[in-house]
Amino acid sequence: IEKLLIQSLGYVVLYSHIVEKPKVITSRVSFGENLPYDKRKEVTEKCWAAFASAKSWKLAPGSVSTLTALRFLGLKVCILSNADARMHQVLREMDLLKFIDGVFLADEIGYRKPQAAAFQSVARALNISISQLAHVGDSPDEDGAAARDAGALGIIVGGRHAPENCLRAEKIDEIPYIVRAVLTEGKKKGR
User: Most buried of the four, 35, 49, 164, 173, by CB within 10 Å?
Assistant: First the structure.
């Protein structure tokens, strides 16, 4: 059985467990009353440019060891993100591409999480069944329930809960243990 783990990569106001929130805000977030109206366009443009640089992102603790452990388990590790093509540069600058088998960005695949088609297009591109796909992220709705509803396994990192029929890890470095347990249980059941 081919195994695949898709790690959700957060963008803008979303939190990612591989790459933490950028150090800046975007036009999607209210700038507040203190920012003069005539400066909003300039600030938005600077923020837009900043998101294209790894300098605005911070690698989440435990990310590299988690990616290494998942690869050691024989898993394919991919990114499914609602980010745009600028994320390729960020991943390159952070030297993460050596851990990743594929990058699937909403702007490039034509679907966004939580659309089932986003998860299905990744499975199709990798020539695997959607039931062989596990998706890890921080949003109970966009990552957990959406993956589950598409037919994949949803695993939530952090937060207070995981949706029904999804799994939850407190921290990213727990993911390899959870995935290994799922794989072991699947082998016991002949899957």
Answer: 173
Helix (H, G, I), strand (E, B) or coil at 161: coil
Burial environment of residue 182 by CB neighbours within 10 A (0 to 12, 13 to 18, 19 or more): middle
Of residues 76 and 25, more confidence is placed in 76
Give dist(CA 43, CA 147) in Å, integer.
35
| d(C-alpha 172, C-alpha 83), whole Å | 20
112-126 as b/e, with b when 16 or more CB fall inside 10 Å? bbbbbebbbbbbeeb
Which single residue is written with the structure tokens 């300098």? 55
pTM of the model: 0.78
Question: What tokens appear for 35 in the block?
Answer: 């920012």
**Where does residue 12 fall: left (phi above 0), alpha (psi -120 to 50 degrees), or beta otherwise?**
left
Percent share of the chain, pLDDT over 70: 79
- Amino acid sitting at position 151: G
Place of tokens 């598409």: 150
Phi/psi at 20 (nearest 5 deg)? -75, 170
Place of tokens 């709705």: 141
